[in-house]
Amino acid sequence: MTNEQFEVEVAYAKPDEQTVLIVTAEKGMTLLQAIERSGILEQFSEIDPETSRFGIFGKAAKGDAELQPGDRVEIYRPLIADPKEARKKRAAEGKKLKKGG
Length: 101
Description:
- The chain is an alpha+beta fold.
- Helices cover 30% and strands 32% of the residues.
- The chain starts with a strand and ends with a helix.
């Protein structure tokens, strides 16, 4: 690697597996460029760069975000359930249990 090059990680997790790939990046490389260079799009056809959400170390980021040495690019899967609705459902189930007990 030259002085202008550095490494970043590209990570994607499914319920049953996690993939983390190391990518050699250059100053000015964007999040989407790192994803494309990693080859992860060929491994997981469900990842759509147009609609998928991304982050860097757990903080939401856009595809044009410029990467820094050591960054961890994360590709997020779509949510299966709305978190607010799931919380309401759990709370309602908890109330039923208390009344029945």
